[in-house]
Design a protein that fits this description.
alpha/beta, 13 helices, 2 domains, nine-stranded mixed sheet, binds adenosine monophosphate, 498 residues, binds methylmalonyl-coenzyme A, five-stranded antiparallel sheet
C-alpha cells in the first residue's frame, strides 16, 4: 500500500517526488545557510534569534574543536542537553564532520547512561548534567566529556561536509524487548528522505515558524522538528521545557505557523482558557503516541484546529500521516508518506514498512537485525488495520511497550530493576490507560513484606529515568501464570490486591 497521491498537491504526480536521496543533511543545511546568511533560523531561549550565518560560523568552530580532540569520520559523539542554539551548533558540527550523533535522554540515570556509552563507545560526550561525567568515566575513562558550549581547543580548519548519503548520521537508542535498549543506526539519506516527505506532505515552507517544545534527543523533536526546519530553511523557536503559557505566548510573539507535540501536550493545551489561540497556527501535528479521538475533537471544538496525526518510529523516522488536504480522521494515522510503503501481514496484522527512510540496522546486533526484517520489510511491532478509504489505524502492539507522555517504557527494563529490591519475590510491569499520559507505568509485585507508599517508585527512580517509575504498585499474593509458567499480564488486574 502506498497511496502517496493522497499527500500530494494537485499539480504533483507521484513519479515526480524528489526525496533528496543522494544528498546529506549538512550539505542541504549549509547550502541554505550560505544562500541566506542574514535569515534568522533558530530562536534560542536565552539569546534570541540566531541567523543562518551565525549558525554556520558556530558549527564550523565546534567542528574544528571536535576534530582537534580527535573526532574522525564515523566516530560517535554523545549529545544530551536542554534545547539551545549551543546544542544545535554542536549537533550540526558533529554531523558536518562525519561523526555519528547519539542523542541521549537527559533524564537517564547512571545505569542507562553507562549502557549506551559502553555499547556505542563515543569519543566525545557533550552533556549538560555534571553528574554524567562521573557516570560516563565509570565505564570508559577515555571519553572526553564537555558541556554544550564545547569549550575545547580549536585547532586548524578541517574539511567539512565530505560524507555521503549512505554514511551513518544518528544512533537512537530504543526498544529494549530484551531489557536493554539497542542503537538504531540511521543514515543521512534515511533522515533527509523523511524530512523531504514531510516537506511535501505538510506543505512545509521556508516562511514557516515552528514552536518546538519537544526535547531534541528523540526523533520527534530532533529528526522532524529541528532537521526539518533546517533543511527547509524555515525557522524554529526552541523551548527547553513544555509549559502551556510559554507555548501560547511564543505562538503570539513570533507569529508562529506550526506546533508539533505529543498527545499529553495537547491534553494540557485544551485545558487552558487560552486554547483558542491555537487557531493562529497553520498546522498542529501530533505523534509519538495515540491521540484519542475524543481529544482530537475537543481540540477542534476549542480552537478550530484539525490536528494532523502522524506515525513514526526511531528506526524509520516518519512513516504515515493524515493528509494536509482532505479529512484528518480522528483515531487514524492516515496514509504512507511519500516514498514509504506499508504492508499488513500476519494474524493479527502487523505493520511492515519499506522505504528510503528505513534505518540501516541495530548497532552491533546481527541477531536483532535478522529478526527485525521480514523479506526486506521492517517489522514495526505495531498492529494495524485499514479502513475502506485506505486510512491506517494502529490497533495494538505486538511488542511489549508502554508509551507514557510520548516516552517509551519497556516493561522488561523496569521489571529487571524492581527484581533487585530486597523485598520483591516477583514482579510484572504493565501500562494502565490514563487520560493525561495515554498510559502510565504500574507494577504488580509479590513481596515478602508490606511496602511503603512510593517505595518501589523511588527505588526505580534512583536507577532509571523518571518517566519509567511505576506511578502505582499493587501488591498481589501470586502471579497469574499459564501452564508453561509464563506470567499472564492480561490477568493481573483480576488479582486481589493485598
Ligand atoms: C514527566 N513525568 C512523566 C513524564 N514526563 N511521567 C511519565 N511519563 C512522562 N512522559 C513526570 C515527572 O517526572 C513528574 O514526576 C511528573 O511526571 C509531572 O511532571 P511534569 O512537570 O508535569 O512533566 P513535564 O516536564 O511537563 O513533561 C511532560 C511532557 C514530557 C512535556 C509531556 O513528558 C515530554 O516532553 N514528552 C515528549 C516526549 C517525546 O519527545 N517523545 C518523542 C519520542 P514527579 O511529580 O514524581 O516529580 S520519538 C517517538 O516516539 C517516535 C519516533 C515518534 O513517532 O515521534
Ligand atoms: P520509538 O520507539 O520512540 O521510536 O516509538 C515508536 C512507537 O511509537 C511506534 O512503534 C508506535 O508504537 C508509537 N507511535 C508513534 N506514533 C504513534 C501514533 N500516532 N499513534 C500510535 N502510536 C504511535
Amino acid at each position: 500500500m502506498s497511496n502517496w497521491h493522497r499527500h500530494l498537491p494537485e499539480q504533483l504526480h507521484p513519479s515526480e517526488i524528489e526525496l533528496g536521496v543522494g544528498e546529506t543533511l549538512p550539505a542541504v543545511w549549509v547550502s541554505n545557510w550560505q544562500t541566506h546568511p542574514e535569515r534568522n533560523v533558530i530562536h534560542d531561549p536565552a539569546l534570541g534569534w540566531i541567523s543562518a550565518g551565525d549558525l554556520l560560523d558556530r558549527s564550523e568552530v565546534i567542528a574544528r574543536r571536535l576534530a582537534n580532540a580527535g573526532v574522525e569520520l564515523g566516530d560517535r559523539v554523545l549529545l544530551s542537553a536542554a534545547s539551545s542554539v549551543e546544542l544545535v551548533a554542536a549537533h550540526t558540527a558533529a554531523l558536518r564532520l562525519g561523526a555519528v550523533v547519539m542523542p541521549t535522554n537527559g533524564a537517564y540515570r547512571a545505569e542507562e547512561v553507562t549502557h549506551v556509552v559502553s555499547d556505542a563507545r563515543p569519543k566525545v560526550a557533550i552533556v549538560d548534567r555534571p553528574e554524567w561525567s562521573e557516570w560516563i568515566h565509570s565505564c570508559d575513562s577515555t571519553v572526553l566529556v564537555t558541556s554544550p558550549s564545547v569549550e575545547m581547543e580549536e585547532g586548524p580548519s578541517v574539511r567539512l561536509d565530505q560524507i555521503g548519503a549512505g554514511s551513518s548520521a544518528l544512533i537512537g537508542y530504543t526498544s529494549g524487548t530484551t531489557g536493554r535498549p539497542k542503537g538504531a543506526v540511521l543514515s543521512h539519506g534515511n533522515l533527509l528522505s523523511s524530512v523531504r516527505a514531510l516537506e511535501i506532505a505538510w506543505r512545509w515552507q521556508p516562511q514557516d515558524i515552528l514552536i518546538l517544545a519537544l526535547p531534541l534527543f528523540h526523533m520527534h523533536g530532533l529528526g522532524v522538528g529541528l532537521h526539518g526546519s533546517l533543511a527547509i530553511g524555515a525557522q524554529a523557536v526552541l523551548l527547553p521545557e513544555f509549559e502551556v503559557t510559554d507555548v501560547l505566548d511564543s505562538i503570539k510573539k513570533h507569529h508562529a505557523s506550526m506546533f508539533f507535540g505529543v498527545p499529553t501536550m495537547y491534553s494540557r493545551l485544551v485545558e487552558s482558557s487560552r486554547a483558542g489561540e491555537l487557531s493562529q497556527l497553520r498546522l498542529c501535528v501530533s505523534g509519538s503516541a495515540p491521540l484519542a479521538a475524543a481529544l482530537h475533537r475537543r481540540i477542534q471544538e476549542v480552537s478550530g484546529q484539525r490536528v494532523l496525526e502522524r506515525y513514526g518510529m526511531t528506526e524509520t523516522a516518519m512513516l504515515v500521516s493524515n493528509p494536509y488536504e482532505g479529512e484528518r480522521r480522528p483515531g487514524s494515522v492516515g496514509f504512507p508518506l511519500p516514498g514509504v510503503e506499508v504492508l499488513l501481514k500476519g494474524d493479527p496484522p502487523e505493520i511492515l514498512v519499506k522505504g528510503p527512510n528505513v534505518f540501516q540496522g541495530y548497532w552491533e546486533r546481527p541477531e536483532a537485525n535478522s529478526q527485525a526484517f521480514d523479506d526486506g520489510w521492517f517489522r514495526t511491532g505495531d498492529l494495524g488495520a485499514l479502513d475502506p478509504d485506505g486510512y491506517l489505524s494502529i490497533v495494538g502492539r505486538a511488542k511489549e511497550m508502554i508509551i507514557s507522555g510520548g516516552f517509551n517504557v519497556y516493561p522488561r527494563e523496569v521489571e529487571d530493576v524492581i527484581s533487585q529490591h530486597e523485598a520483591i519475590r516477583e514482579c510484572a510491569v504493565v501500562g494502565e490507560p490514563d487520560e493525561e499520559w495515554g498510559e502510565t507505568v504500574v507494577a504488580f509485585v509479590v513481596a515478602d513484606r508490606e511496602l511503603s507508599l512510593d517505595e518501589i517508585k523511588n527505588f526505580v527512580g534512583e536507577r532509571l529515568a523518571h518517566y519509567k517509575r511505576p506511578r502505582r504498585t499493587y501488591r498481589i499474593d501470586s502471579m497469574p501464570r499459564n501452564a508453561l509458567g509464563k506470567v499472564q499480564k492480561h490477568r493481573l488486574a483480576e488479582q486481589s490486591i493485598s
